[in-house]
Write a structure and sequence with these properties.
The chain has 380 residues and is α/β, with parallel strands linked by helices. It is built from 17 helices and 15 strands. The strands form three sheets. It has a seven-stranded parallel beta sheet with strand order 3-2-1-4-5-6-7, with helices on both faces. It binds uridine-diphosphate-N-acetylglucosamine and uridine-5'-diphosphate.
């Protein structure tokens, strides 16, 4: 069986790495990786290949940045050629970025079986580009692998055939388990002159939070307020860095004492920062899950989440408005709380990639086609 797995943007690499490893352990699976190039900076792409021990991608489409339509269309055109050439039995996509949607569409239009890892998540907010990507991808997938109970409920409500849906846990947590010890051995916190559990870790990249000057101004108010309480480490996404420059906030930012602005961090470095932080302030999807697993309090600056288990079982609190005063009051409350939830969401146990691989292999009764080729028969 030949599986083509797609990566494109930062949150894809840590999901595909354990899957590629699990596929590669199967004698009957040929696992190939296609990188769309949606993210392309060394620190948004290559660093993850090295750290997560992924081989060089078999194909690099090099699409780069652009509007949603341009990026999606460019990926579709380039990916179609690869699928036609490779004739895979299965295309596997993860998450909810534009690369996910584009490759899912191409696969299904060529009648290739499609697996979606991280299926069923819904924020309910269709203004988020990711929500459209999730809905469309799930609606055409043949195998839907779900991370948390809410995903099962959404897919059932949307009428997806239950035989296609598998509750397998969270493959992102597989990577976290795989690299946790390496992160523990890093002395990054010390080298930044910080103390363990005595700093705020921050990331911010949603267009709704960083694409307007007044929003960036609030983020700066927030950082100034946080820095009065404890040092802040800000790992800055290129979208955010670009907007800070564009709106002319660089000087004000550089003048905040007790703020460490870092370029996008490698996976191991970021894991080390998360593990050692007192609290995380973010608008990331994946970081809500990782902080829940690590039991680090997390304030998510968004009005919705597609990952509600991080609130009901985890350490996450949603703050619906980008308002510095509001966020600071949540921050004060949160760091005074002594008791944090102690549970771990079901099947977030580091074994999800193997579960997915086992399901795919058990479904892959390779059926001879009349032309002599073989085809993944997931209807069996
Ligand atoms: C994308 C995903 C988002 C995900 C995020 C993870 C979509 C619709 N969005 O958002 O769901 O949370 O990745 O990080 O797929 N840029 C660089 N270098 C890079 C990549 C991007 O400079 O390597 C800059 C470019 O100016 C680009 C901007 O960042 O225009 C945004 O990149 P894009 O991939 O469009 O969206 P993200 O905000 O990264
Ligand atoms: N991450 C990283 N370096 C950073 C920031 C995040 O390695 O500087 C990792 C983080 O640990 C998680 C993933 O990137 O595994 C989340 O990606 P991101 O926040 O870019 O996207 P989202 O999850 O919001 O789609």
């Amino acid at each position: 069986m030949k599986v083509l797995s797609v990566v494109g943007a930062r949150p894809n690499f840590m999901k595909v790495a354990p899957l590629h490893r699990a596929f590669s352990r199967q004698l009957n699976v040929v696992s190939k990786i296609v990188h769309t190039g949606q993210h392309y900076d060394e620190r948004m792409s290559d660093i993850f290949f090295n750290q997560l021990e992924l081989p060089e991608p078999d194909y690099y489409l090099g699409v780069g940045s652009g509007s949603h339509a341009v990026v999606t269309a460019k990926i579709m055109i380039a990916f179609e050629e690869i699928v036609l050439k490779e004739q895979p039995d299965l295309v596997l996509v993860v998450g909810d970025v534009n690369s996910t949607l584009a490759c899912a569409l191409v696969a299904k239009k060529l009648n290739i079986k499609l697996a979606h890892v991280e299926a069923g998540l819904r924020s309910g907010d269709r203004e988020m580009p990711e929500e459209l990507n999730r809905i469309v991808t799930d609606s055409i997938s043949d195998l839907l692998f779900v991370t948390e109970h809410s995903g099962m409920v959404h897919l059932a409500r949307e009428g997806v055939d239950p035989d296609k849906i598998f509750f397998v846990g969270n493959v992102m947590i597989d990577s976290l388990c795989d690299y946790r010890e390496k992160a523990e051995r890093l002395r990054l916190v010390e080298s930044l002159g910080l103390e363990h559990n005595k700093f705020v870790l921050m990331t911010m990249h949603r267009p709704s939070n960083v694409d307007a000057a007044d929003k960036i101004a609030v983020i700066l108010d927030l950082i100034e307020g946080l820095c009065e309480k404890m040092p802040v480490v800000f790992s800055m996404h290129p979208r955010t860095a670009k907007n800070i420059r564009h709106f002319g906030f660089e000087e004000r930012l550089n003048n905040i004492s007790d703020l460490k602005i870092l370029p996008p961090q490698g996976y191991i470095e970021f894991l080390s920062l998360m593990k050692n932080s007192r609290i995380i302030v973010t608008d990331s999807g994946g970081i809500q899950e990782e902080s829940t697993f690590l039991k680090i309090p997390c304030l998510t600056i968004r009005s919705t989440t597609e990952r509600p288990i991080t609130i009901t079982m985890g350490t996450n609190v949603l703050i619906p408005k980008l308002d510095a005063k509001l966020i600071l009051s949540h921050f004060n409350k949160r760091i005074e709380e002594v008791a944090l939830p102690t549970g771990t969401p079901p099947l977030w146990d580091g074994k999800t990639a193997q579960r997915i691989t086992d399901i795919i292999c058990s479904k892959s009764l390779l059926k001879a086609k009349s032309n002599g080729a073989s085809k993944l028969n997931i209807d069996a």
